[in-house]
Known about the structure:
Mean pLDDT: 89
Helix content: 40-55%
Number of domains: 1
Largest sheet: 6 strands, mixed
Amino acid sequence: MGIHLVSADVEEWFGGAVAAALDEELARRGLPQLPPAASVASFASFASFEEKVLPPMDTFGALCREVLTPEEAAGLLDWTELVPVPFDGVIELPVPSTYGDRAVVFSAHRLLPLAERLAAVLELPKDLRGSGFRTMEVSSWFLDIAGEPDALAGRTGRWTRDLPAAFYAAMYLRAAQYCLRQGRPLTYC
Length: 189
């Protein structure tokens, strides 16, 4: 079981309280809303996104505080919903999320450059920076590395000394890429 970051179920998302509250808040701010429900049918043809949240986030949080501004780090670390709509900061909504009494929405447009910066600092290998969207691709990659005693032999970069931080940098990079390319929200479950 555990916690997973997944692409939102289309019917649940567009019929849910978070989407309704977000659309209302975006309209209040004069910002573009999520794609209309009429385009929901096209979402069904897209591959789903799913990654299992595996290691502790302590070293990733420390990396974020080292590399990013306090506002950027807070936005990246605190969101519960990721959407393909550009806006600054986070949007807190007075509706429950999977893990709290409020939903915290972050823009994939903001997440992508932050994740790219973290990936660069960690010197993530190209196979982790790519935008393949196979289910559990990042999780599987790191489980394979952890299960092979010699898997890091010959590998270089800061990421080899901090696999948990590298996992989250890769996961968030892939999440932002997916959200923007597919136009589909992501959430934790």
